[in-house]
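#struct-help
A.M.: can someone run this one for me? Single chain, 248 residues.
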Amino acid sequence: MKLNLKIWRQKDQESTGKLVDYPLEGINPHMSFLEMLDTLNEQLIRQRESPVEFDHDCREGICGQCGVMINGLAHGPLKNTTTCQLHLREFKDGETIVIEPFRSGAFPVKRDLKVDRAAFDRIIASGGYVGINTGQAPDAHSLPITHIAAEAAFDSAACIGCGACVATCKNGSAALFTAAKITHLVKLPQGREERSERVLSMVAQMDQETFGHCSNTEACEVECPQGISVLNIAQMNYEYNRAKTLKK
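D.P.: on it. Structure tokens below:
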């Protein structure tokens, strides 16, 4: 299999980047996308050139570190798939593939395909937790939670913080990420004690990080590898308005 890769190369945050062509031959179509980048880097190292830097960790679709734009789509052409789970059999022999970092003012490019997503960490640190002393693990039935509530909380908690929602949003909004982190806690009794303080703090931090505003195009849900529903954003808006009303 032969591919023509057009990859964004950028030395650092202050430098001007550009797309660079890399022809690659003899590629196995069963390779994952990241394995293909590994192969390219091995070739570049042999040629005494600087390898392409990109984020990755688990390579199992869990950690959310591997996000890039592939032909203009976050994580590539498959729905509900992380970059590491994408395989070359989804592309045609001889195809040109454009690979770029996630684009957002809140995600500055560190180098090549690596972006700084610390803004997400700061949103979590502002309130994405419960401030209670849990002590030892409680008995399973000491705090009854309905199956429906537990499943709804898990659906929201499935967010891996990859940033695809931000990268695909025309406004660069982090509403889906923030909403998922707020919603999964408010659906559980442990998180309801601080629900008002949490939503006000996390939304304020989201705005401080210069993310754009949500305009309900729902592109975030389409590109989310975990299929996080935009109904989480509706829940966040409800919680925010409720907290503002109670604060008056």
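A.M.: thanks! Residues 169 and 219 are 6 Å apart (CA to CA).
D.P.: also worth noting: The domain at 3-111 is CATH 3.10.20.30 (Ubiquitin-like (UB roll)).
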